[in-house]
Design goal:
There is one protein chain. The protein has about 350 residues and is mainly α. The chain has a single domain, classed as Orthogonal Bundle (ABC transporter involved in vitamin B12 uptake, BtuC). It has 14 helices and no strands. It is globular, with a radius of gyration of 21 Å. The model has no long low-confidence stretch (mean pLDDT about 85).
């Protein structure tokens, strides 16, 4: 009985620590968002920002106050899209790594980002696409980003591919799409090449409220489904045979979770461009602190990704103001050394 109480107390202590970490990250998101909204070419006080947001929520938006216009039109869409994009990429990365049981799995290494880049390149250079003029780049990026997912699904369905084969297939498609995109860059005119390079670097400056709403709806539907299936992720980490013996169909769960993660990634990338690193490293960093239980790891990876992308966008707008650096550059420059430091200082193995 005493040992049972000790185990129960240890479990609840660990659970409280995880909930405290999530709460701390949510507070960090609010603080970072407030700082991001207050800094720019026109400085607005931190308290004034939250006061105006409250006023807009209660009394409505008016364009008579230029500060409200700056917040609602220029800064708030970037912050909200940054939170949604970072959350989506973090969740998708955790799902890919859990499904494939591979620490290298991410939207980038599976070829999803490279395929989206090729679709955007075709739209920007040759004006060829699957949607109308206003949604030419977005439509192309979304359609092409689903191609690697469909190829991997087909390999898994008809060739009974192992997780190792699936990630190797993704890496192969990453290089194929990257090579074609490089050819298009070589042939592109100067203006089209510049637009293409900026899109490939990733940016939150194109965020609009309609796009934000679409992203929020996709995440609002997909994230609960992933969390609901997170126990299957835990079982699949034991191997397919063990998962089957515990009552889970790993093949079906793998396809469902891969489809959801691919949809999240495609939705985010088509609106923001190729923002790398977050989907790969966010789950690793969170796994170091909260463990490998996907019931907690998936949402925490998303929250961490949101906080990290908002902070990166703040740095990209202010480090050499008024010039705005593409946020994808900042995520790699800041996140890469941070990740290496954490790996070198942590002796415990998480895979």
């Amino acid at each position: 009985m005493k040992q049972k109480n000790v185990l129960r107390n240890a479990y609840f202590k660990n659970y409280r620590q995880k909930m405290m970490m999530i709460t701390a990250m949510l507070i960090l998101i609010c603080l970072t968002a407030g700082i991001s909204l207050s800094h720019g070419s026109m400085e607005i006080g931190f308290r004034a920002v939250w006061s105006m947001l409250w006023q807009i929520c209660t009394e409505g938006y008016t364009d008579e106050d230029p500060r409200q216009t700056i917040i609602m039109v220029l800064r708030l869409p970037r912050v909200v899209m940054g939170a949604l994009a970072g959350f989506g990429l973090g969740v998708a990365g955790a799902v890919f790594q859990g499904v494939l049981r591979n620490p290298l799995a991410s939207p980038t290494t599976l070829g999803v980002s490279a395929a989206a880049g090729l679709g955007a390149a075709l739209a920007l250079i040759f004006n060829i696409g699957f949607a109308g003029k206003n949604f030419l780049v977005v439509g192309n990026a979304f359609v092409f980003s689903m191609i690697p997912a469909m190829v991997i699904f087909s390999i898994a369905r008809f060739r009974q591919a192992t997780p190792e084969m699936m990630i190797l297939s993704g890496i192969g498609m990453f290089y194929i799409f990257g090579a074609v995109t490089s050819i298009l860059e070589f042939l592109a005119a100067q203006d089209a090449l510049k637009a293409m390079v900026v899109w490939l670097m990733g940016s939150l400056g194109r965020a609009k409220w309609g796009e934000i709403m679409i992203t929020a709806i996709v995440l609002g539907i997909s994230t609960p489904l992933v969390i609901w299936r997170s126990w299957d992720l835990n079982l699949m980490s034991l191997g397919d045979d063990a998962a089957k013996s515990l009552g889970t169909n790993p093949d079906r769960s793998r396809l469902i979770l891969m489809a959801i993660a691919s949809l999240i990634t495609a939705t985010v990338i088509c609106f923001t461009g190729m923002i790398g690193f977050i989907g790969l490293v966010s789950p690793h960093i969170c796994r170091m602190f909260i463990g490998a239980d996907n019931r907690m790891l998936v949402p925490v990876s998303g929250v961490f990704g949101a906080a990290f992308l908002i902070a990166s966008d703040l740095v990209s707008r202010t480090i050499i103001s008024p010039v705005i650096i593409p946020v994808g550059i900042i995520t790699s420059c800041v996140g890469g050394p941070l990740f290496l430091y954490l790996i070198m200082t942590k002796k415990k193995q998480y895979w």
